[in-house]
Amino acid sequence: MGVPVTTVDPSLPTVTAPPSPASTAFSQDSSFTEELDRQIASYVELGIPGLLGIEEPTFRERLQALRAAPPQQAEPSTVEGDAVPFVLVVPGLDVNDVAPAMRRGGRLGVSVIDRDEAPTYRPLVEVPDGPYLLWGIDTGSEFCNVTPESALAAITHRGRTPLTIDEGVALTVVRPDMLRPNKCFSLMGSRTGTNQRVPAVWISERRAKLGWCWDRNPHTWLGAASASGRIGL
Question: What is the domain count for the chain?
Fold first, then answer.
């Protein structure tokens, strides 16, 4: 889009984290609690507790209550391979500081949303105040080459909820395998309220990039992510 990458502090925990966290590999055979534990471990290894200014044991303890959340039955994704059972979302983070944790292999993720604009992307949907589970996720490849405006109408008609910018970053952090060439996704659940920009995550120069597209511009490589619901503490 011709905009510069947003600068981050090179000493951020998400920048200095080891290049290949051991717990990032998802397994279809994992139980709900096993997958939740894997996602928590991924956050720890990628430096998220450091961004929150809390110790690892405290971070883990705060999230343990989510183990009691009953697994939800989600509708199957329209496109095979687009489904994600659930994603752990941790609010209160600066998306630009989290962006390096959107790793593809050893390559750090980046953002082209500047630090003044990023806080203006507010949720269009109700989200829990504390950590929560986003369940029944569909990365929305069926909406490639469809405008975000039209995709949002279709998703809403189905009774589903669009992903916010925080949720899209969380998805990319804990399930980097779901950000695939020509199957990236817009995050229609967050808007600035002052312009037609829709945040999105895609692949550029072999790394994950957080940016934005216009709500009436279709892209052949950009779908629209949605979910069945949210479960908070």
Answer: 1
Q: Which two tokens stand for residue 114?
A: 């500047």
Residue 204 and residue 150 in contact, taking contact as beta carbons nearer than 8 Å:
no
pLDDT tens-digit map of 165-198 = 999 999 999 999 999 999 999 999 999 988 999 9
Residue 91 belongs to domain spanning = 72-232
Does the pTM surpass 0.85? The reply is yes
Write the pLDDT tens digit of every residue in 78-127. Answer: 888 999 999 999 999 999 999 999 999 889 999 999 999 999 999 999 99
Number of H helices, E strands in the chain: 7, 12
Residue 213 lies in a domain: yes
The answer to whether residue 167 is domain-embedded is yes
Q: Does residue 105 fall inside a structural domain?
A: yes
